Input
Amino acid sequence: MYKLHDYQTKLVNQARQKLSSGKKSVLIVSPAGSGKSVVIAEIARLALIKPHGQVMFMVHRKELVEQITQSFKANEVDLSRCTIMTVGKIAHRLDKLLKPTLIITDESHHSLAKTYKKIYDYYSDVPKLGFTASPWRLSGKGLGDVYESMVEGPTVEWLIDNHFLAPYKYKSITLIDPKKLKKSSSGDYSNKSIEDSMGTASIFGDVVKNYRKFADGQQAIVYAHSIEFSKQVAEKFNMNGILAEHVDSNTPKAQRETIMGDFKSGKIKIICNVDLISEGFNVPDCGVVILMRPTKSLVIDIQQSMRGMRYKPGKVSTIIDMVGNYLEFGVPDTDREWSLDDWKNQSEVKISVCEFCFATFETKEWIKVVDENGSARRKCPFCGKLALLNVRDAPKEKEIDTSAELVDINKKQVEQMKFANRNPYKSKSITNIFKILKSQKDLGTREIRYPLQRTLHIRMDQLHGRIPMNELEKLSDVSGTPMNSLSRTYHAAFDKHEFKNERDGITIRF
Output
């Protein structure tokens, strides 16, 4: 039987307590690599202590059936009282299968699909437990329609600090033109737009060069956007004397098992794939992942970037991000707030990028003005320059600097970059206003001389008056400014502040 870590036992107990209290559906959220299979196997074992217990375990890929079966065996789960099948098989056998007393669903971010709902509706009176590392969908739809309660495991940062996940080094450079990325009907980037974004960049040579520089001799998994591209990457490694193989969902099982066996023995150094080595797929441990697929999916980014972070004493995972995915999602231990609610409106939030200062903001934030010719124009809310009228006015197509070097990326840098791209006037939090202005000053994205004073003026305008003491205390903490010094700065700013009225904007210079 498995011996659970304390945090895993806590997850098991919390989920069971939720069900005991009357909740009929509970979602367990725990980071990739935190031992999900162990937790699932223990919950299944405990559910079968009751004499009439019957567990149904659903997965979306047939490769995962054997994996969870082995986990159940290792934890002495009575398999004669378990149904372990893919979602598709269960949906076609509903009238033939034994009715479960507990339904467990793996990778539950898929749970809104019609096949899952068909099963849940058929067993509408049966308690449900779901597992995922990220309750997030490209559509923005939350999982609240399926689960009524959520239990969260420890953060990635905590798991690293307590030696349950390996620490990592994150190296990145963007060797694509992100402006050429276009979404398909699925919500993720289309393969054609990804290929267009790569242009004539020597990305194949760069991946070999950067592998040799940062992970030479180590085994690595490469994530590509298409089968053809994955094969080309493998070929490039082989041409440079580094044994690599491509594998995908269409690779015959016997051949795939041979490749995985050779990878485990160390004969093969590099495995290139598209989506196969992502959700729960069992691959021998390695410490290096190379991201060559830009994505809009947080689920895909987490699963792929964290694939090399399985813990071993002394191990440090290396993540080589060739397409700048961290700019969209951060790094593995970026703080995230999970919820069962929708995370955005069903209609995609429209984003614009200024052609001059490259600030990123919601399209609705453009400032509408009339130019000297009487034409309606849009002005950037950050740099104040007018948006270009047509394609002929646009700057030359971005040239990708293939000589640029990969740089280290950490959690603090990612947070700073995200704040720097935000509009301080849109934030109602005094601490966030300061963080935005300070990040813009530090990164040089805007000419900010005194972020503390400007924060005070922006907040006074928002409140049309004085700033409450509790907000000033928060500003003192986040800025590292002693309260007595901040108080003097605030009173001086208040004395010279001219409050904006509804019709005229007052420019404050300081």
